[in-house]
Structure formats: structure tokens, C-alpha cells
Amino acid sequence: MFSFSDLFQWERFITPAIIKVFYWLVVAIAILVGLSGIGSAFAMMAVSPGAGVLMLIGSLFGVAVGVIFARIVAEFILIVFRINEHLSAIRGQGEV
Fold first, then answer.
1. pLDDT digits (tens, 9 = 90+) for 39-64
2. Least CB-packed of 41, 45, 77, 82 within 10 Å?
């Protein structure tokens, strides 16, 4: 993982180590928002069954899209840091 001293030094990035925590946090938020939407959909079914079913489907679709989007963003951030590492290695080979 990373140590407390890494927060004050710039030789090592801490983002790749903590990006998984942020990913799971966003997934949990997406699921909670989806559960809230599902609860609202069931309440809507008492008023209008058709609108409630559409809201239920939309909530489930929103959870799936939220989880996939969170994964894409997390992978993009990790790719940017990996590119930086590879470019540093290439630069180190050229200096020899």
C-alpha cells in the first residue's frame, strides 16, 4: 500500500494505491441510489403501474450504467499512471 511519509514526498504516486477504494465507494453510491429509485418505483406503482414499472427498469439500468462507468473511469486513471511509469522507464533506458 502506501505509508504516511508518501504523502509528503513526490517520488511515488498514491492514487494508484487508493483508486480501488474510490471505485468501491462509487459502486456503493450507485447501488444506494438504485435502491432508492427502486423504492420510489414501488411507491409510484401505487399511483400509476406503468410509470412505476418504467421507473423500476430505469433504476436497474441506471445502477448497471453507474457501475460500468465507475469501472471505466477507474481504469482510465490507472492507465494514465501506467503510461507515466512506462515513459519513465523508457527515459531511464535512454540516459544510460
1. 999 999 999 999 999 999 999 999 99
2. 82
